[in-house]
Specification:
alpha+beta; single chain; 212 residues; six-stranded mixed sheet; three-stranded antiparallel sheet; globular; 11 strands
Length: 212
């Protein structure tokens, strides 16, 4: 059985990532290193209920089980030079869309797990943007139902508020319907103190949601 927390803790000893693709590649390689008995596939295709094809970021499997992973990497502005790399992470902002997309990953994994025997899934979000794990400073917003605040329970049908702008949610209008209930338990990934050479948001945290 794969322990994604062990994989992430191992990665956290090395470095942050330049991009989401960098994160996905590093995670897949660590899986290959830690679980050499498993076959690892990237961008794994599967059929949805309407017979269109969707893809899962990473799938690991053997003769007994199948484990699917969807990974997101959302960043706030961060700059850190090292001997090997220069990390310049742009601020993605648009956290409302980032939350929607992560919850959509959970929904996608629910669909995948339903179609495969002895399967499970993990949606993983890594970020240095505290807006994802901290409570909102606003009393109400258009994305309240999509919030991933630490310790929040997520379940049921999640929708934008009626005041959400059509331009803002274009391509993401549909509600997200979750079959399971999931609690947001954020964990620390790494932290870099600000200095003359390190600027921006240096605290990284991650969220793992298991789908069975």
């Amino acid at each position: 059985m794969i322990d994604p927390y062990t994989v992430i803790e191992t990665l956290s000893q090395d470095r942050p990532f330049h991009s989401e693709a960098d994160f996905q590649h590093a995670f897949a390689w660590q899986l290959h290193t830690d679980y050499s008995n498993l076959k690892i596939r990237l961008e794994y295709p599967f059929y949805r209920e309407d017979d269109t094809i969707d893809h899962i970021d990473i799938v690991a499997f053997d003769d007994n089980e199948t484990i699917a992973f969807e990974l997101k990497y959302k960043t706030a502005l961060f700059f850190m030079p090292t001997r090997k790399d220069v990390f310049y992470l742009k601020g993605h902002s648009a956290q409302d869309l980032g939350r929607y997309d992560f919850l959509k990953d959970i929904h996608r994994l629910e669909k995948f797990v339903t179609g495969y025997k002895n399967s499970s899934g993990y949606a993983i979000l890594l970020t240095n943007d505290g807006a994802y794990w901290n409570p909102s400073s606003k009393a109400k917003s258009v994305c309240d139902q999509f919030r991933l605040t630490d310790q929040r329970l997520i379940t049921g049908e999640l929708s934008w508020s009626e005041t959400a702008g059509k331009g803002t949610i274009k391509g993401r209008e549909a509600p997200i319907k979750l079959k399971g209930s999931y609690k947001c338990n954020w964990r620390d990934y790494s932290e870099f103190e600000k200095s003359e050479s390190i600027k921006g948001s240096g605290k990284f945290r991650y969220l793992v949601i298991k789908i069975t």
